[in-house]
Write a structure and sequence with these properties.
Number of domains: 1
Number of strands: 0
Radius of gyration: 18 Å
Largest sheet: none
Helix content: 55-70%
Shape: elongated
Strand content: under 5%
Length: 129
């Protein structure tokens, strides 16, 4: 019977890596600011401000900020289209689905980022490259 290979020690996480990961988690969660703050585009403005301030600190923060902004802008467009389709009644079915996918995607992205994995949001138009 073969013995399993020895465990490879994990690379220690430096404080700069941990800080970048924390900012990336904050970027993902900042999309929920539209639910908390009282102005309509907070879910875009808050991640934009964080990204503009912190993007030069780390390539991970820069990439995550672009991904979050692309996602928030895309789902804003999808929500507006679904809201417009409410006049034809089909929007009443599409709008809750769009909002549910938006919420679940933010939660999944946050969990994956906290585990050290990168995440690409589904159905996102890549405005920022």
């Amino acid at each position: 019977m073969d013995t399993p290979p020895p465990l490879v020690p994990l690379k220690p996480v430096s404080s700069s890596d941990e800080s970048a990961r924390s900012w990336c988690i904050g970027l993902h969660l900042s999309g929920l600011s539209g639910l908390i703050l009282s102005f309509a585009l907070a879910h875009i403005v808050v991640p934009l401000v964080i990204w503009l301030v912190k993007r030069s600190d780390s390539p991970e923060i820069d990439a995550t900020g672009k991904e979050v902004l692309n996602f928030q802008i895309s789902y804003t467009i999808y929500s507006l289209i679904a809201g417009g389709l409410c006049f034809v009644l089909v929007g009443f079915v599409i709008l809750p689905i769009v909002l549910l996918v938006w919420l679940v995607s933010i939660i999944i992205a946050t969990v994956k980022t906290s585990n050290g994995e990168s995440y690409r949001y589904p159905f996102t138009i890549r405005f920022l490259k």
